[in-house]
Amino acid sequence: MFTERFLRDRRGVSLTAEERARLEVAISEVRTLEPRTLLARAGEPLEVSTLLIEGVMSRYLDDRNGLRQLVAIHLPGDFLDLHAFPLKVLDHDVATLTAATVALVPHTELEAIMVEMPGLTRKLWFATLLDAAIHRAWLFRLGRLDAVGRIAHFLCEANARLFSAGLSDGRRFALGLTQADLAEICGLTTVHVNRVMRQLREEQICIFRSSLVEILDPVRLATRGQFNPAYLYIADDERLPSVKRPKTS
Amino acid sequence: MFTERFLRDRRGVSLTAEERARLEVAISEVRTLEPRTLLARAGEPLEVSTLLIEGVMSRYLDDRNGLRQLVAIHLPGDFLDLHAFPLKVLDHDVATLTAATVALVPHTELEAIMVEMPGLTRKLWFATLLDAAIHRAWLFRLGRLDAVGRIAHFLCEANARLFSAGLSDGRRFALGLTQADLAEICGLTTVHVNRVMRQLREEQICIFRSSLVEILDPVRLATRGQFNPAYLYIADDERLPSVKRPKTS
DNA sequence: CGAACGTTTGAGATGACTCAAGCGTTGTGG
DNA sequence: CCACAACGCTTGAGTCATCTCAAACGTTCG
């Protein structure tokens, strides 16, 4: 079941058995990829989309000096370039961070699904909009949080997403990222990420050790990152610590 | 023709006469709004989506201290909360910046379109993904550019979008925004935005005067902002100055 | 064993922030 | 029609967060 984790645990849009079966049939190929491998390049027309089964992948934009800004990371269960189907051409590069296994779905299959199954189509659309919602949370992170807040917010997000994929117990998880990756995600330098991690460690909030993350104090981490998981549209997000939105009316 | 500007001038997805007519019929109401009016609030279920006909609108997230981070601005022709249809509930607030005219489209109509017209559905999907592509460019802006670069990049984007909506001549346009709005878009303080504008003025690159923007040197502005309009998927973007992507292979 | 990579630390530079005040324009009510 | 309030723009001085440059340390892997 390659599609097992896709849209799992999302509010109101879990797939029916029939829909899941239809997607399974749509897969043309399953492939394994090395770490740090480019999968698709900005501007190239694409004829397949990629469902991530195992590993961590990234999407990023390059600046003039060869520095990167990551615009998304993807975890198992994510349909990571589904948006290439309506868009045809991507505006960014896609690459693996860790070793990964992916399933490829030809756009001709998606075309057929659009005609046959409006219900499933809407769920696929939803999946791409979930990515957009995550983009917005990242905008908040970069625009309004300081270095500690950005790292904290990101770690909360990673924890929440891995938790709903069944890959975190809510406190500890393996995230195959280096401090340099965190820097490219949070718009910081590697050096400063390192200082932030030291601070979080010394305050007994979170430990980041060779791609393994251990959250010692989830509540303080969420507070530091002003994290509210509503944007992840997780079915039951009550279990996750967060900063509650004040209910003004 | 309320839908006149919707997806106008976008690469490969202009609407057919029939599709446009179908959308026109779907409009249930046209409404005018005051400046700085809240239209939708995060977490509220929505049953209609909004097509912007005139004016400028914004989407934003609040931080703990009541500061805002804008995550999108919308110009005439934008279907600004189309994503509320698959998502049902938004993760952010929506408000006008200037006075505005909007057309409302009930989700029941969109539901019908999804069943009847897969082709139009795909174009609507495309429209929401265009917003996501813009989010990504904003992430690049916040994560990798300094203050001057962020403002420059934003002004290039505004110019390009207004140009393809027929509301800029390529150099001068009315953008109903204050310097405080620019600050909320670019993750800066109002004071610093002011200093940046002074610098752009003194260098004869761009003048920003009471919501009127005049670009004196489009090429230098694009260079400062590392602006490449590919992410806007504009049909013929050759006319816009940009930083060319190096063609490495 | 050595190379490659990721992490850690220090010292100094700088871009953006904060606080504070003044200016100009617009709109409104006395 | 004037006065004043409200708002947006402008400027200065001092502070602080993050960056840059530089070097060293630890691990892993061939």
Task: Explain the overall architecture.
- The structure is a homodimer of 249-residue chains.
- Chain A has 249 residues and is α+β, with helices and mostly antiparallel strands.
- The first copy, chain A, has 2 domains: 17-134, Jelly Rolls (Sandwich), CATH 2.60.120.10; 146-232, Winged helix-like DNA-binding domain superfamily/Winged helix DNA-binding domain (Arc Repressor Mutant, subunit A), CATH 1.10.10.
- Chain A is 39% helix and 20% strand.
- Chain A has helices at residues 17-26, 84-87, 107-116, 118-144, 147-164, 179-186, 190-202, 218-224; strands spanning 29-33, 38-40, 48-54, 57-62, 68-74, 93-96, 100-106, 172-174, 206-209, 212-215.
- A 4-stranded antiparallel β-sheet of chain A has the order 2-6-4-5.
- The model of chain A has no long low-confidence stretch (mean pLDDT 94).
- The interface between A and B is large, with 48 and 48 residues.
- Chain A binds a DNA duplex (30 and 30 nucleotides) through helix 7.
CATH topology of the largest domain in chain A: Jelly Rolls
The residue-averaged pLDDT of chain A reads 94
Gap from first CA to last CA of chain A:
45 Å
Number of strands of chain A: 10
Question: How many helix segments of chain A?
Answer: 8
The SSE string of chain A, one letter per element, is HEEEEEHEEHHHEHHEEH
Q: Measured on Cα atoms, how large is the radius of gyration of chain A?
A: 18 Å
| Major β-sheet strand ordering of chain A | 2-6-4-5
Structural class of chain A: alpha+beta
So what's the CATH class of the largest domain in chain A?
A: Mainly Beta
Strand content of chain A: 15-25%
Task: Report on the biggest sheet of chain A.
Answer: 4 strands, antiparallel
Instruction: Give the helix proportion of chain A (percent range).
Output: 25-40%
List the domain count of chain A as a whole number.
2
Largest contact between chains: A-B, 48 and 48 residues
State the low-pLDDT regions of chain A, or none: none
Based on CA inertia axes, which overall geometry of chain A fits? globular
